[in-house]
Design goal:
This protein has about 325 residues and is of the alpha+beta class. The chain is built from 5 helices and 20 strands. It has 3 domains: about 130 residues, no CATH class; about 40 residues; about 100 residues, no CATH class. A hairpin with a 2-residue loop joins strand 2 and strand 3.
């Protein structure tokens, strides 16, 4: 059955460390998908399935991770990857879960939990040397996503229909997004529109902007599109950070600062990147997967990164700037 297995809304329990250990190879993976150290703490706990991993974006293309779901809003806390602050949603192979009521619950085995942590931790990083350059690379579910998934063709209607038949999206959203996707992918394919860069600036030199020094919990208002455009290069970037199309709907709205971001793992290289310039995430502000070429319906709900010059500090949600 094409959309067999768990569906959004199903209640599941994460299997015990003993059971999960039995599914993993010596690299701590199942069908190429790593079970990560950050996931061990959830063994034995109960969650609700939020989405099936039918159209997961990776570098602006969609990929299908078979027999895999996303639970609630469980995210990686980076504790097993030297403090990576990406906060990716965790991917769960169905073999790591049991539907509540379908089987006898597993036991919590502290000894096996320790062994599971050891197995998956020793596979999270490796030393590399290439020519005169050495260093350390990291492995996580998203650095390994290509190995654990299959690529999806942009014009294959089955890949979109699975979003509907799996229960991932309601019919009204499906119609709205599929109409936009058909229109904009057609224009893009014909070279009639360049829609992957939503806001192109005309700045040719870096404009110094006083740092706000924003901290978690503070209120900010996202500046207008025109104000943000004034900070951007013709490539749509400020200090190397791209202003994404999924960020446009938040212009003019107010949010709390969630976190300052200083280190993330690059999915392509596996290297830990230290961010030198100001960068923050905002509470409740995530990528919808409804607006972007190649990422239609993506369930990852990634937190976009914001430069402080795209924001202004305000007193609260209803205060005047």
């Amino acid at each position: 059955m094409e959309n067999g297995g768990l569906r959004p809304g199903d209640v599941v329990q994460v299997r015990s460390a003993t059971e999960i250990m039995a599914t993993l190879d010596d690299r701590g993976t199942l069908a190429g998908l790593p079970f990560m150290p950050e996931m061990v703490q959830h063994c034995g706990r109960t969650f609700v399935v939020d989405k099936r991993a039918e159209r997961v974006c990776w570098m602006s293309v969609s990929r299908r991770v078979r027999d895999t779901v996303i639970l609630g809003d469980l995210r990686c806390d980076g504790s097993g990857h030297d403090g990576c602050q990406e906060e990716c949603r965790l991917l769960w192979n169905e073999a790591w879960l049991r539907q509540v009521g379908s089987e006898k619950p597993g036991s919590r085995d502290a000894d096996y939990a320790t062994q599971l942590v050891e197995l998956v931790t020793r596979n999270t990083k490796q030393e590399i040397r290439s020519g005169d350059h050495g260093g350390q690379t990291y492995r996580c579910q998203y650095t390994e996503l290509v190995r654990a998934s299959q690529g999806l063709a942009v014009w294959d209607p089955r890949t979109y229909l699975r979003e509907l038949t799996s229960g991932n999206v309601p019919f009204s959203r499906f119609l709205r997004v599929i109409a936009r996707a058909a229109f904009e992918e057609s224009l893009h394919g014909l070279g009639l529109a360049v829609t992957d860069v939503p806001v192109r600036g005309s700045r040719t030199a870096l404009i110094p902007v006083p740092a706000l020094g924003l901290q978690p919990g503070e209120w900010v208002e996202v500046r207008s599109r025109r104000e943000i455009e004034a900070t951007l290069s013709p490539e749509g970037k400020y200090r190397g950070l791209w202003f994404d199309r999924e960020m446009l709907p938040f212009c003019g709205k107010r949010f709390r600062v969630r976190q300052r971001v200083s280190r993330i793992i690059d999915y392509q290289t596996g290297r830990l990147i230290e961010l030198k310039s100001d960068c923050v995430k905002l509470e409740g502000v995530t990528c919808s997967g409804d607006l972007s070429l190649g990422r239609w319906f993506c369930p990852r709900a990634i937190y976009p990164y914001w430069r402080e010059c795209w924001l202004r500090r305000v007193d609260g949600p209803g205060a005047s700037p």
